[in-house]
């Protein structure tokens, strides 16, 4: 749910600047060459001919070039020039033919130098624009690019404490040691405590890793340096390493301190000696980081903290003992955690009496801290826009949907015919979602466009699922394909509206066959998918050799089978319930939003036990994991889904 717009913007700006400079350059060259009147270029032999026949006049003889007027084919006099050759007889011939000529001193070196100087200036300008100018926006001088851009926060301004971080009690507990140590390094040592050095916080984006690190600094009352690892590698080779060095130097001067590196995987990915040798700049930066990690003694009162959402791709050297050897998981919050996080953020706004944060927490499975902060913020904005005194339940509900799907687009005008297609498509999803046994409860269906979607069926999963069964995934494929199936059944024609559904279907089917071993024919196999984000040429090549062409064909067939049979099943469910389906389409067209209770009524079902009444599933036994090799979080199955 996060985006990297800022960085991209900056890139776009530099491209704009480059284009600008190229324009300036072309202009300069044109000006310098002053085309003025067009001179025809004559061969020297031709020129001599014209001299012999007196068809040239007003010559200027410069050291390298002779120019003047000549009589062209049309018999008119026009300017010309020719390259001068060593021709001692020329002057006597000119005199004999009574042609006027004058000599010109050699000043070509002046223009040469001017031209070169211009070039140099242009290059310096270009370099300055691309590499140094963006930094000035950060209020730093132009020549400081080797300095770390880390932001330092004084202990005195440190206002974030553990009170501000909710719902990750285990992580807080584990960080107590670090706080004790930072508060009094000497005492900690005397008591024989093993000195922590590097702490790796891992978890999905927005779960509060940065916030936790800041809170540790706040609790311990020490300086906090934060830098994003991606900043280290954005420029020239060598700068990243210099910045790492500078960051550590700054921290040492201000110890005790915490150095926090965000997105550690940006520099810390596994080094790979593939074809071409990998990414030099990143590797240099990583090496420098390792050197600094080994070089400082914990006694100096510095703790390095880092965050990543891909601990599995980190270079093993980074997480070895003595380096980032403490791994703390910061998971997406559970129901109670979400309620607590909402409470923390709701302190900043005035809540109406009808808002129950527990209910909000229930309706936001899969949301991380950043999403929840966003919900409260959006709700406050909505309430303010409507001139309300307090945030009401309706503001909260709208805010939740905004965070899931983007703002409503009521102004978008959709023709009645298209609306019919959209309604049928959505009701297809809804009916199949409601009538399959292993799917999450349908929350509502709407044809009010929101964000990118023209309409959507919203399913809210039951609280906190950690495992997904094959039946659930099969139902999911069926639900995803039901929109397209409905279009085909009702209109005998299919539209582009299903493209996102189809992408998701493909992704799920692939995953089932290739990663989860859920294909009957192929059995429990898991194939390397190489989804560690970075395409290394060498690694890519080697991956394709891990299975045979026969297996590849069988995989494709299994994926196709899954998709085809799910599509047939979706069509079957809709056809068998056609009357209810049609009625729901009409209701949806009329009301634009149909909620769970009414959906059930139309489908002639007993209302599904509402989420509030649903018994909480027993906490599943957490899968025991080796703490040494932290796994990436895979939260996808828990999110609220829109189709
Ligand atoms: P991460 O570093 O894991 O991507 P951040 O720490 O940057 O996430 O979280 C972004 C924002 O989300 C925080 O500034 C805070 O407002 C909110 N937030 C995230 N997690 C929590 C939490 N556990 N408690 C309170 N607020 C949170
Ligand atoms: Zn759809």
Describe this entry's structure for a reader.
This protein is an alpha/beta fold. It folds into 5 domains: 48 residues, no CATH class; 67 residues, Signal recognition particle alu RNA binding heterodimer, srp9/1 (2-Layer Sandwich), CATH 3.30.720.210; 179 residues, Rossmann fold (3-Layer(aba) Sandwich); 70 residues, Helicase, Ruva Protein, domain 3 (Orthogonal Bundle), CATH 1.10.8.60; 195 residues, Methane Monooxygenase Hydroxylase, Chain G, domain 1 (Up-down Bundle), CATH 1.20.58.760. Helix content is 48%, strand content 11%. The protein is built from 22 helices and 15 strands. It has a 6-stranded mixed β-sheet, with helices on both faces. Helix 17 crosses helix 20. The chain is extended and about 120 Å long. The N terminus is likely disordered. Bound molecules: adenosine-5'-diphosphate and zinc ion (ZN). The site of adenosine-5'-diphosphate has 17 residues, from helix 7, helix 12 and helix 14.
């Amino acid at each position: 749910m996060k985006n990297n717009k800022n960085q991209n913007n900056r890139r776009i700006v530099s491209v704009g600047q480059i284009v600008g400079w190229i324009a300036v350059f072309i202009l300069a060259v044109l000006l310098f060459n002053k085309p003025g009147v067009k001179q025809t270029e004559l061969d020297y032999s031709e020129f001599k001919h014209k001299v012999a026949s007196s068809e040239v006049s007003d010559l200027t003889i410069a050291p390298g070039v002779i120019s003047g007027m000549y009589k062209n084919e049309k018999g008119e006099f026009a300017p010309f020039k020719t390259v001068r050759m060593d021709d001692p007889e020329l002057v006597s011939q000119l005199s004999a033919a009574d042609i006027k000529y004058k000599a010109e001193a050699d000043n070509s070196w002046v223009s040469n130098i001017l031209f070169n100087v211009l070039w140099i200036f242009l290059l310096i300008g270009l370099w300055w624009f691309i590499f140094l100018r963006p930094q000035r926006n950060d209020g730093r001088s132009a020549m400081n690019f080797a300095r770390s851009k880390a932001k330092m926060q004084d202990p005195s301004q440190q206002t974030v404490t553990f009170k501000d971080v909710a719902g990750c009690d285990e992580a807080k507990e584990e960080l107590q040691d670090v706080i004790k140590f930072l508060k009094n390094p000497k005492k900690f040592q005397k008591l024989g405590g093993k000195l922590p050095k590097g702490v790796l916080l891992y978890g999905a984006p927005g779960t509060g890793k940065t916030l936790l690190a800041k809170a540790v600094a706040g609790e311990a009352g020490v300086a906090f340096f934060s830098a994003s690892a991606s900043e280290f590698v954005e420029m020239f080779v060598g700068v990243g390493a210099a910045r790492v060095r500078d960051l550590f130097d700054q921290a040492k001067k201000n110890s005790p301190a915490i150095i926090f590196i965000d997105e550690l995987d940006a520099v810390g990915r596994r080094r790979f000696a593939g074809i071409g040798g990998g990414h030099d700049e990143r590797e240099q930066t990583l090496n420098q980081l390792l050197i600094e990690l080994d070089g400082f003694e914990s006694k100096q009162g510095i703790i390095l903290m880092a965050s990543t959402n891909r601990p599995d791709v980190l270079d093993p050297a980074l997480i070895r003992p003595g380096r980032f050897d403490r791994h703390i998981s910061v998971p997406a919050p559970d129901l109670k955690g979400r309620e607590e996080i909402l409470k923390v953020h709701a302190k900043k706004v005035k809540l109406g009496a009808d808002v129950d944060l527990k209910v909000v927490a229930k309706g936001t499975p899969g949301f991380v801290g950043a999403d929840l902060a966003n919900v409260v913020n959006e709700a406050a904005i909505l309430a303010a826009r409507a001139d309300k005194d307090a945030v009401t339940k309706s503001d909260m509900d709208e805010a939740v949907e905004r965070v899931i799907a983007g703002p409503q687009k009521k102004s978008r005008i959709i023709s009645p015919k298209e609306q019919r297609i959209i309604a049928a498509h959505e009701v297809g999803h809804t009916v199949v979602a409601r009538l399959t046994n292993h799917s999450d409860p349908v929350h509502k269906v709407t044809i009010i466009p929101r964000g990118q979607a023209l309409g959507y069926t919203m399913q809210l999963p039951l609280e906190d699922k950690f495992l997904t069964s094959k039946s659930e995934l099969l139902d999911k494929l069926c639900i995803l394909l039901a929109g397209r199936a409905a279009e085909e059944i009702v209109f005998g024609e299919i539209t582009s509206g299903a493209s996102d559904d189809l992408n998701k279907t493909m992704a799920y089917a692939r995953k089932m066959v290739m990663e989860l071993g859920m294909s009957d024919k192929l059995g429990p196999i898991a194939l390397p998918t190489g989804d560690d984000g970075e395409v290394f040429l060498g690694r890519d090549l080697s991956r394709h050799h891990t299975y045979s062409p026969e297996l590849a064909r069988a995989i494709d067939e299994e994926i196709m089978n899954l998709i085809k049979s799910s599509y047939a099943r979706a069509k079957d469910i809709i056809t068998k319930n056609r009357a209810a389906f049609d009625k729901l389409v009409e209701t949806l067209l009329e009301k634009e939003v149909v909620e769970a209770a009414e959906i059930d009524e139309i489908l002639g079902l007993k209302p599904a036990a509402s989420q509030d009444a649903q018994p909480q599933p027993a906490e599943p036994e957490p899968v025991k994991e080796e703490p040494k090799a932290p796994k990436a979080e895979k939260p996808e199955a828990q999110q609220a889904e829109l189709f």
